[in-house]
Amino acid sequence: MSRPPASHPDYTRLPEPGPDMFAAPLQRPAQVGEDWVEPAQRAYSSEDDSIWNDLFARQLQVLPGRAATLFMDGLERLDLGRGGVPDFGQLSEDLGKLTGWSVVPVPMLIPDHVFFWHLANRRFPAGNFIRTRETFDYIQEPDVFHDVFGHVPLLADPVYADYMQEYGRAGWKAMRYNRLKALGALYWYTVEFGLILEGKDVRAYGAGILSGPTEAVFSVEGKSPNRIMLNVDRVMRTDYVISDLQPTYFVIESFKELYHDTVDRDFDRLYRSLGPGFTYANTAVIDVDDVLQRGTQEYLLRGGRGSNAQPV
Length: 312
Ligand SMILES: [Fe+2]
Prior knowledge:
It is a single chain. The protein is of the alpha/beta class. The chain has one domain: Aromatic amino acid hydroxylase (Phenylalanine Hydroxylase, Orthogonal Bundle). The strands form two sheets. It has a five-stranded mixed beta sheet. The chain has a two-stranded parallel sheet with strand order 1-2. Helix 10 links the parallel strand 5 and strand 6. Helix 4 packs antiparallel against helix 6 and helix 6 runs parallel beside helix 11. The radius of gyration is 19 Å and the shape is globular. The site of fe (ii) ion (FE2) has 7 residues, from helix 5 and helix 8. The site of fe (ii) ion has 7 residues, from helix 5 and helix 8. Its cofactor is Fe(2+). It comes from Novosphingobium aquae. Its EC number is 1.14.16.1.
């Protein structure tokens, strides 16, 4: 049974997951405390820095004209291309002046309630490690390039910065209702794989898209995927793919609209109405959808990742 949440939780205190909440068991490394923040950012080798520089240069070849303008602005304002893995202290100082956010180093995976707690306090937890040349093209777990290059530029935008904080607060509530999967789908289809309209163009703002070269093109220009205007209720009922290109992307009009669509929603009511599983398959197009493109799903039908299917 889920307990009704307290109406005004104290977000400064780390929440204790209750006995009826599911929290994935994670072994806390000896060097981190309750907040899971590493004592210091890793000292990167010159090879690590050159991997960052090469990843950065590769993305800059594909992102102009495909990434959201506010993302490109953020990259520049935070000077993420100054060379080498950015220093989190410097980054936090720059970001702090713009929106009050900071970036803190954490181990690869941290518990959900700790992640939400950091977001609710305008701290972005970023993985410390960077991929190797062997895993240059594809990594399972997010590294510092995904986390900092992909997520941090938009935190320089005040409206997006507020959305991320509200997401952290919403996470807390979702845990109390045991509906993390549904809220996870919202994160997936916005923060990680979101698209945004700019005039008549569709551009990408999701970190999962922007931190790799293939999906940056596929999501915006591919014939395979569906592109559907975002509807929060629908998205929170939709399954998603973790280890391949998405069959469906959801498109927002603006960050302001995303913020209000989310924050002004009665999540208590929504969580009570949601079942524990997903209702819609990740390829589904349903009658309430405002469809920008109905995808051919050719990439998926030809076998997706692991086959020699072209991401078209
Ligand atoms: Fe991410």
